[in-house]
Structures are given as C-alpha cells and as structure tokens.
Amino acid sequence: MRSDRASVKGRAPHALRRLRKCATSLATLPALRMRLSQILISTLRDDPADAEIPSHKLLARAGLIVKIAAGVYTFAPLMWRTVKKFAQIVREELDREGANEVMLPIMQPKELWVSSGRWDRYVNDGIMFTLKDRKGSDMCLGPTHEEVMTAYVNAQVNSYKQLPVNCYQIQDKFRDEIRPRFGLMRGREFIMMDAYSFDADQPGLDAAYQKMRNAYCRIFERCGLAYTVVQADSGAIGGAGSEEFMVIADSGEDSILFCRESGYAANVEKAVSKLPPAPAGGEPKPLQTIATPDVKTVAQLEAFFPGWTAARMAKTVLYHVTWKAKAKVVAVMMRGDLEINEVKLTNALDALAVRLATDDEIKAATGADVGFAGPVNLPEDVPLLADESLQGVTNLLTGGNKTGYHCLDVNLGRDCRMPSWKELRTARAGEGCPVSGKPLEQARGIEVGHIFKLGIKYSKAMGATFMDQGGKPVPFVMGCYGIGVSRTPAAAVEQSFDDKGIVWPPAIAPFECVVAMLDPKRDEQVALADALYAELKAAGVDVCLDDRAMSPGAKFKDNELLGFPVQVFVGRKAAEGGVEFLVRKGMQKSECAAAEVKAKVLAALGR
RNA sequence: CGGGCUGUAGCGCAGUUUGGUAGCGCGACUGGUUUGGGACCAGUAGGUCGCCGGUUCAAAUCCGGCCAGCCCGACCA
Q1: In sequence order, what are the residues at sequence separation of 6 or more whose Cβ sits closer than 8 angstroms to the Cβ of residue A510?
Q2: For strand B, is any atom closer than 7 Å to the CB of A554?
Q3: 0.90 surpassed by complex ipTM
Q4: Does residue A83 contact residue A191 with C-beta atoms inside 8 Å?
Q5: CA A3 – C1' B66 distance (Å)?
Q6: Is the C-beta atom of A187 closer than 7 angstroms to strand B?
C-alpha cells in the first residue's frame, strides 16, 4: 500500500501532469461572492392556481419549489440551501447524542419486507411504490427503513457489548399517498430523517428515547418554531409510548388537545378527557319498542322524543373491521352526544383497519335499514362493543334493530348482551383535562417529528438478535424516530409569513442577510455593497449580494417575498455612506451609516 | 375508492352556452428611454387549445373514450 502510493505519485503519467497544470491556482481566483445574479431565482407575480395554504403558495410563488408531478417537487437552489441548513441542525443535535449518520438504500428487495411481514400490507394499502428489476424480481422504493436498518445492524452487532447503537439517515422517502397536497406538506417523495435505536433491554430503550426527545426539542427550538410535544397513537404496534412534535399552524392536518394548567397535550387520535356524566336514568324500567318511522339520527330522535337528551341515547354504529386473516362487521355503541374515535376502535380490536359498514352490510348484520341499529336482538355473531361512557347508564334509548323502530328504557345486560367495554370516545375541546380537570383547548398542528418505542416488533419478526451476558440470543429492543426534513421548512413558512411573503427564521433562511445594490451600474453602490458583503462575511454572517439588474421597486418586492431575515439596501445615499436597513420580521425599516451595518445585522440576528 | 371542478403561450386567465380557423394580463426577447416600491415606448417570438376517436364543408367549442391535476367526502345509525 505505502510503496504503491509512492510509486504512482512518482511516476504520474504525462497526461495527468498536464491536467494538473491546467487547473487554475486557487490563489489567483477572485474572492467568492454569493451573487443572486448567479443563482437561479424565478419568482412569480401570481399565486399558482393549485396551491391552497400559505406555505405552498409562497414557496411556489417564490420559485423555491417546482412541481413535476402530484406530490413530487424540485427544490430550487435557495430552497435547497434551507433544507440543507435544517438537515445540518438535525445532524448536529443527533450527533451530540451519539447517533451515527449512515445512508441506506432507497431501493429495497421484496424479501426484506416479507421478512418483517409488512410487504402484503403495504402493497395492499397501495402506499408503497413497487417495481420489478430486469429479472422480474420485486423491489420497492422505501417508504421507511426499519427493515433495512434492522438487517444492517443485525449483521454488524453480535454482542450486548456493542450496544447501545443508534443510527440515522437523511434520505428521500417514497409513499404513494392517497391524496398528495399542500406542497411539501404531504408529498409522495419527501426528505426524512429516520433514526433507529438498538438496545439490550427496556431501560436502555427508555434512555435512548429520552436522548432523542431532548435532541428533537433542541432542533425545533433552534429553528425558532412554536411547537409542542403531544402524546400520539402508537398504532396497532402497541408499545410503551409514542410522541409527536407538532408545529402549531391553522393549516395543520392534525388536531391536538391541550391543557395549559397541567401541560397535558395529545393528538386527538389519542386524547382522553373527563366527561360530565349523563343525566341519571333512574331505576330500570320495562323495555319498550316504539315505532319511529323515518327517525334515524340522534337529532331527529331528540325532536321525536321530547325530554330525551342525546346523552341518554346510545347510537349503535356498525363497522367493517379487517384483521390479518379475517374481516367482520362489528357493532359499536356510543353515547348519543359523543363520537367514536376510529383509531381507538382499531386499537381496541387489534385490527388492521376499520371503516363504516355499507348500507348493505348493515342490513345483513342487523336486519334493519341504516338508522335503526341497536343492541337488542342483535344477532349473536355480531360482536358488541360499547364505550365506557355508557357503563352504568340505565334506561337508554337505542335503535330497535328493526326498520322504523327504536327501543326505550334499554338496560344493557338485561335486554341484550352485556357489551365489551372499551375507551372509544373522541375527546373534545371544552371537556375536562384528564390531569387537571380544567377545560381542554384545541389547536391544529403539523407533525414534524415522531418518536416511538418500537420494542421488539421488527427484531423479533426478522430474527435480529444479539448475544446477552448469558450467551443467549435476544432480540434488539428498538426505537424509531423521524423528522420531516422537507416538511419542517414548509411548516416554518406556515408559521412565519406576512402579506409581502416569507419571513424565514434566521436559522434556516436560504441566507441570513442580503446586501442589495439598487443600481448595479453605479460604481459607488457596487463598491459599498461589496465592502459590506465582505465585512459581514468576515463576521460570520451567511450573506448574499443582490447584484441583479432590476428596478428598485422590483428588487424590494422580490427580497421581501424571498424572506431573507435581514436586508441591507445600498442606494442613492451610497456616496455618503448611507444605506437602508430592513428587519424582515415586522418590516422595520431604517436608515443607517454603512459603518453601523455590521453591528446592526449581528444584533438583528441575535448575535 | 366515491362526488365535484379544471385542463387554451413559461405563469394567471378569457373564449366553449350560440361551431367559422385563438385572445388578454404578467413574464420572455430586441432596440431605446429609465432607476426608490414589481418602470415606459416601439417592436418580436412563443400555442399539436391534455390525448385519442366521432359528428360536420368546418371543432378549443358538439358527442364518446382515455389521461392528468385540483377540491371535497372518509364522525354518518
């Protein structure tokens, strides 16, 4: 090796030496300037027709993202700078916790997914992009990387002495979303950081999880985002816990409930609440069946039976439930004034999926048309679940299981089977916080991060084990952790914009500062702008020089739209050393002397 | 997967009802005049009207099929 190297160098081929001579010496190159005139920027005057939410409109109008297909985008140079800056923050904070950055393949063989048992489900759900290679072998584009990472670590780690291990990557992900929308928020190709921790036992996992949680908090804090950590549904996987990091924004796809008093916060999919009890039904009365033609909804029943409030009614909703090997129609009872949470229902049944039964399925299962389902005389083969809110409630009003009839004074267990009690209710704003009892508040959130205690689901399925101290093979105890790397900058825009355009948080702005010469044909403006650029650059500011030939008005508008946090305009007062200074957030504009610029920029950036 | 809407120049749109051989604004290009809030004047280029088929002397326009995109539904017993 050593001698090979030396000899190659010593006998460099003639042609290679010539090549070297052609290269320009670095010392003779002019100082590097980030000039906007050399960066591909194409802002639009109008909002694109297909954009709905502010971040999508603004990112598209600023030319920062360009759609190539539904949910598939090109990142323009300035946007890519932003994404790279965010990715770098993610890297720094994960590395601080001892995680290892790797790069896993996007294209993956079917066998890997079969080994974890996920191939059929992902293919049937249509969420995975699949393809065949020239030999006809099935491949897929990774929607997530548990399989690859588990296989990788399993192959490298044999002993408990090598644990814990935490690896992550920042990589393109592919999911064939049912409905791609909102620009970068829900794309079919997107960038994600996914990390996976491997521990010997549960306490190890708990510690790994906590480290990641801390890192995530630092990441979103550094970006200047208003975010909250909420309890999240952990899906059919179960597990000890899962939390989501939510950026608060009106356009968020998730609904969260929270309490200022106790700090309780949860995704509505998971949230629980304290509920005012239903009005007392009194001592059990005899069951009655009453003709209620065309009365099908709770609202109609309240009108039909004056005095009966929805809280004393029990609606019976029929669901078509799918498990791995079977499917069935299930009856679910809920207090009339409350709503069923389908995520909780799916979990309670340990099912793959639930959906409302069709009219035909309802008729087949209950013998009655839609609107008249109830527990009384419900066929034995239809499982009966009920929400805990109905527990102990006497003399209920329910459907009669017969078209055109409802039952009054139904008492569960007496007039029908005793249902299986579950917590199935959707918590709502205004109901009591489960911790403090104070009314819960509601907000919309954009999920930018999700951390998850996986346990041994994948390691067990895939036979990924290490040798413990007793010399026995034991499955890894895993955690997985994701951050939407392309989504988070979009969420930042969603949280920070005004009528003039984007207002980037400094930490992830394409540039922290722009120095714009309003007339690049005037030597004194060019010279002053260039000097200020050099001074700011030397002071560690990520600055660019706007030397584009445009009218002053256009230049103001363009920079406002692009949203650089600090903007310095060199114009007609350049000869006297005067410039204009703009803090984009709040649009505070002032004039100052060139000599003050550096201090003002650093102050505006909080340094 | 259902329901609705849309597809005409790089972008935003009109024209389709009542068929007659394609237009507006922005943008682009050339020349000139400009230079503090998306400048002005003159000129130029750019469109198989999403695709395929049908009706017709004639189709952006009418009919059929397909494709693409967007919005909504997925709390109703």
Answers
A1: A78, A79, A81, A82, A504, A544, A562, A564
A2: yes
A3: yes
A4: yes
A5: 67
A6: no
A225 and A369 within one domain: no
**Residues A62, A175 share a domain:** yes
Q: Tell me, what DSSP letter sits at residue A49? A: T
Q: With respect to residue A582, please indicate whether it lies within any of the assigned structural domains.
A: yes
**Which residue from A421, A424, A482 is spatially nearest to A451, judged by alpha carbons?**
A482
For residue A340, the 8-state DSSP code is B
Tally the domains of chain A. Answer: 3
CA distance A495 to A492: 5
Where are the extended beta strands (E) located within A456-585? 465-467, 473-475, 477-484, 497-498, 501-502, 513-517, 543-546, 566-570, 578-583
Rounded distance in angstroms from the CA atom of residue A178 to the C1' atom of nucleotide B64: 29
Distance CA A508, CA A247 (A): 15
Q: Which residues pair with A301 in a beta bridge?
A: none
A172 part of a folded domain? yes
Residue A224 and residue A252 in one domain: yes
Find the domain containing A189 and state its range.
54-106+142-257+442-492
- In CATH, what number is assigned to the domain containing residue A594? 3.40.50.800
Token pair belonging to A184: 């970068």
Q: Choose the final residue of a domain: A376, A392, A422.
A: A422
Whether residue A416 is found in the same domain as residue A384 = yes
| A488 lies in some domain | yes
| Eight-state DSSP code of residue A235 | G
- Could you list the mean pLDDT of each consecutive 10-residue stretch along chain A, which spans 607 residues? 46 59 67 91 91 94 93 95 98 98 96 92 86 92 95 97 98 91 93 97 96 98 96 69 92 92 93 87 92 85 87 91 86 91 88 83 86 90 92 91 91 93 92 94 93 93 96 96 96 96 98 96 95 97 96 96 98 95 97 97 97
